[in-house]
């Protein structure tokens, strides 16, 4: 496998794009050797769904598109970033948010990322938006 594999897709900020983003990322993971039934695939599927949903629902129409970047470095670390052009950063929710009807997406993302041995960070973009990144260890043995 190459030292760096990367791909990205830009989608309209439309609810139907969440499914497209999720399928796109899961397809890449399969192409890069992660078996479809792996626990990491399930976690990434939910993480991408939550991040894409946030990019669609919480940008107040200020981000007509969002971009999903996927990068695998040296077969060791998987990076997934969702970028939108809205300047507002995700609000840190407490664990009690899980009991609410909404607002628990980032709690779920943080939990799944940490459970997978990874981390989450938010970085600003040049156009005033932000990228929400998750970084998790790559779980496929290189043969």
UniProtKB/TrEMBL annotation:
The keyword Lipoprotein does not apply. InterPro entries: Anti-sigma-factor_SerPK, HATPase_C_sf, HATPase_dom. It comes from the Bacteria. The keyword Cell membrane does not apply. Residues 11-134 form the Histidine kinase/HSP90-like ATPase domain. CDD domains: HATPase_RsbW-like. It holds the Pfam family HATPase_c_2. Keywords: ATP-binding, Kinase, Nucleotide-binding, Serine/threonine-protein kinase, Transferase. This is ATP-binding protein.
